[in-house]
Design brief:
Distance between the termini: 68 Å
Number of domains: 5
Strand content: 15-25%
Number of strands: 17
CATH class of the largest domain: Mainly Alpha
Structural class: alpha+beta
CATH architecture of the largest domain: Alpha Horseshoe
Shape: elongated
Length: 479
């Protein structure tokens, strides 16, 4: 510790104090003051005003604590400066009116280079994180150029973010670094670096920026292109960025198309995908999109029930696209994985993905198909009791209060999966000739029927329905 204290002599770090910190008498040291948290760990560091400054850790996050009243002269939103002088920590406030800009640039450049080095080391399996520790970079700066931290600079976290770096839990990475390390576990080292660099180029784009390297990285890795395209569909490009992408590059065209798809402009996206495939006929992500768009055009010679089944499959495909997949994933997270097919149906209808599908793709649909889908939007989720099963027919009656007429359906699978007395949660959709079960029904324990009925009051909360299948039945009250 004495070596670190000696190395830190004269250095100053700053931090924007908050009302909560002042009330607690402690300064958060996750980012801006992390080096001082390392310095004050253990026995602490003498405080110039008397007493000792120590590091406290709560929920994995360090903070600096001092003697009673050590922050008495600090007000909320003041910039606190903590300097090591004579082996003690001095505390003051500063306005940063005339901070040395060149030194701030030196700091951000050092962090940017080491963040890139950290990404490469992570990709090669040499480091567990794609970001570099703040205290490591500061220590190297103190060894190479101690004058860099001799005067108060802006607090580190906002300074680094302003320089298009990401700060996470005391580490700094380039924008787009894969902090969720499991998400890139199946990528080759070079593709991990490419993925992060392309993300960085897209997320930090400024007018006139050169995107040629990003396009080159995308063109050299279909895996990276597929991932970036999915991300762009989830978070569409700004108009300026979309306009800056070269329309002569298939990878760039795919991103523009996915951005349009993410904004609900499927017809426009289809045309751009056609341009991409004209330039690169084997571009797999574009081929998949083209096939999905083509499938929206049904065969006019098919009867409406056959087209209805096809439309439902297209709805499912639409719901599983990157822009909407999270709706299903959120429900699965609350429920059980085996229920995913039924939860997909729940996500489609209770979040009105059907309406989004109509808005985005109605130009490819026939009038009777549009009317059919509109009727599906109005069809509620209901609990049904199985009254009878015979061959490929099943007879159902809506459960709950009131008189409901039985409904008999013809279905290839449902009769073999149900028994008389079962309760099924599903939506009976019109196929043009009568009610039909297109989705995957939930089986409901008859003992929990009333509990489910209580959840089916309009508007239905899909998250409550999903959670129902994870939690145990409520205990029966004693008589």
């Amino acid at each position: 510790m004495s070596e670190l204290l000696t190395l830190s002599e004269g250095a100053v770090l700053t931090h924007l104090a908050t009302r909560a910190e002042l009330a607690a008498g402690a300064l958060t040291a996750v980012d801006d003051l992390r080096l001082w948290a390392r310095l004050a760990d253990g026995d602490g560091v003498p405080f110039a005003g008397g007493g000792v400054v120590r590091t406290a850790v709560e929920a994995g996050e360090p903070s600096l604590t001092g003697p009673d009243g050590w922050l008495a002269g600090v007000r909320p939103e003041d910039v606190v400066a903590l300097r090591v002088r004579g082996g003690r920590l001095e505390l003051s406030t500063t306005t940063l009116a005339d901070f040395p800009a060149q030194r701030a640039i030196r700091v951000t450049e050092e962090f940017a280079q080491q963040a890139l080095d950290a990404l490469r080391a992570f990709a090669e399996g040499l480091e567990p994180s794609p970001g570099v520790s703040i205290d490591i970079v500061l220590l190297e700066l103190l060894m190479k150029a101690p004058e860099t931290l001799a005067d108060p600079l802006p607090p580190l976290a906002p300074l680094l973010r302003e320089a298009s770096l990401e700060v996470r839990g005391g580490r700094v990475g380039i924008v787009g670094a894969p902090w969720d390390t499991e998400s890139v576990a199946d990528l080759a080292p070079l593709d991990i670096v490419r993925l992060a660099l392309v993300r960085s180029a897209l997320r930090t784009y400024d007018d006139g920026a050169d995107l040629s390297k990003a396009i080159t990285y995308l063109s050299r890795s279909e895996e990276v292109l597929t991932r970036i395209a999915d991300e762009v569909e989830r978070e569409p490009l700004s108009p300026g960025l979309a306009g800056a992408l070269p329309r002569t590059e298939p990878a760039a065209l795919l991103l523009v198309a996915r951005s349009a798809e993410g904004e609900g402009r499927s017809f426009e996206a289809s045309g751009i995908i056609a341009e991409a495939l004209a330039l690169s006929p084997g571009l797999a992500p574009a081929e998949r999109d083209a096939a999905e768009y083509a499938a929206c055009r049904t065969n006019p010679d098919d009867p409406l029930p056959a087209r209805a089944a096809h439309l439902f499959r297209q709805l499912l495909a639409y719901g599983h696209r990157p822009a909407r997949r999270r709706l299903i994933d959120d429900l699965v997270a609350l429920s059980v994985r085996v229920a995913e097919p039924a939860l997909a149906d729940l996500a489609l209808f209770e979040n009105d993905v059907v309406g989004e599908f109509l808005d985005a793709r109605s130009e490819w649909l026939r009038d009777d198909e549009v009317r059919l889908l509109e009727s599906w939007r109005r069809t509620p989720l209901r609990l049904w009791r199985v009254l009878g099963v015979s061959g490929d027919e099943i007879t159902l009656r809506e459960a709950g209060p009131g008189e409901h007429a039985p409904i008999t359906l013809a279905d290839e699978l449902l009769p073999s999966q149900a028994e008389v007395g079962d309760l099924m949660l599903t939506r009976l959709l019109d196929d043009g000739e009568g009610p039909h079960v297109f989705g995957h029904p939930f089986k409901v324990d008859p003992a929990r029927g009333d509990e489910m009925l209580a959840l089916l009051t309009d508007p239905v909360d899909p998250y409550e329905i999903a959670a129902f299948f994870r939690r145990a039945a409520r205990p029966t009250p004693p008589r």
